[in-house]
Amino acid sequence: MTDLRDVIIIGSGPAGYTAAIYLGRAGYRPLVIAGALTPGGQLVNTTEVENFPGFPDGILGPDLMDAMQRQAEKFGAELVWDDVVSVDLSGDEKIVTCDQGDVFRARAVVITTGSQVRKLGVPGEEEFSGRGVSYCATCDGFFFRGKPIVVVGGGDSAFEEANFLTRFGSSVTLIHRRSEFRASKIMVERAQANDKIQFMLDSVVERVNGSSDNGAESVVVRNVRTGETSEIPANGIFVAIGHTPATAFLGSAVELDEDGYIIVDGASTRTSTPGVFAAGDVVDRQYRQAISAAGMGCRAALDAQEYLTKRS
C-alpha cells in the first residue's frame, strides 16, 4: 500500500486528463490510473476530430489524447497504466485497488472512467469502424454529405441522430428490430414527418459490406418475422443502441442511477460520497462530447480542490 496522496483520478480521456491538468497546476500532483488497454478513452479509436476548439484543421483523436496526457504530466501528474478492480471510498482515506495488485490511498478521488458504446457484433462492424461505421452522429455526420446513411436503434438517441443526419445524407434509413419504438412520441412523430427518413422495422443488421478503398458501402438486413434478407446502400452506418457506463468496479461505493451512471449533486461533480467526484461520460448520458467531458473534468478538479482546501 502506497503513501497517502491528495487525489487519485480513476480514468483518463478528456475528463480525466483535464482534471489532472487543473489539479497538477494547483500543486496536488494527482495520480492518474489511466487504464491498461484503452488509456485516453474512446477518442483513441477516433480518426479525425474536427469540432474540438483550437484545432481549425482538425486533429486525430489519439494525437489529442497524447497532447492532453503530456500536458497533465508537465504539471506533475503521475500516470499508472492499470485498471481499478475495487474501491473503498467510505472513509476519509480512499482506497483504490488495481488489477496488478497495487493499492493506492488518497484524500479525494475523481472518477472519469467513461462509458462504452454497445455494438452490433456483426461481421464488418469492427473492420469498417471509423471508415463508415460510427457511434456518434455529431462527430462524424459531416463526412457523409450526399451519401446514403443508416441508423440502427429505436430509442430517443437513434431518432435524434437520424434527424440530425438528414442535414448531410442523401437519405437516412432507421433500422429497428421491433415494430414499436422506445423513443418518445414527439421524436417518432418528428422523424415520420421528415421526408428524408425511411424506416425498416422488425429488422436487424446482419453484416456491413465494403472495400479497403471506399470503406463501408452497404448493409445486409434481415427481417426477423419473415427471415428474408436484403442489401441496402449505406456509406455511413450509425449505431445508436445505447452506452454502458464503466462503473462495475464501484459496487455500492457511490450512488448510481438505474442504468449505472454516477449521480452527482446538481451542476456540481460531487457524488453521494464525500470526497469523491465524477466527470465525463460516466455521468453524462446526454452530450457525450470530448469538449463537454473536458469542461466537466475542470469542474471536478475545482470541486476536489475546494474539498481538499477545506480539510487542510
Automatic annotation (TrEMBL):
Keyword NADP: yes
GO molecular function, one term: thioredoxin-disulfide reductase (NADPH) activity
Pfam families named among the record's database cross-references: Pyr_redox_2
InterPro entries: FAD/NAD-binding_dom (IPR023753), Ferredoxin-NADP_redctase_2 (IPR050097), Pyr_nucl-diS_OxRdtase_2_AS (IPR008255), Thioredox_Rdtase (IPR005982)
Keywords tagged on the record: FAD, Flavoprotein, NADP, Oxidoreductase, Redox-active center
Domain FAD/NAD(P)-binding: from-to ranges: 6-297
EC number: 1.8.1.9
Catalytic activity entry: [thioredoxin]-dithiol + NADP(+) = [thioredoxin]-disulfide + NADPH + H(+)
Cofactors required: FAD
Cofactor note: Binds 1 FAD per subunit.
NCBIfam families in alphabetical order: TRX_reduct (TIGR01292)
Family: Belongs to the class-II pyridine nucleotide-disulfide oxidoreductase family.
Complexes and interactors: Homodimer.
Protein name: Thioredoxin reductase
Organism the protein comes from: Bifidobacterium phasiani
Gene name as annotated: trxB
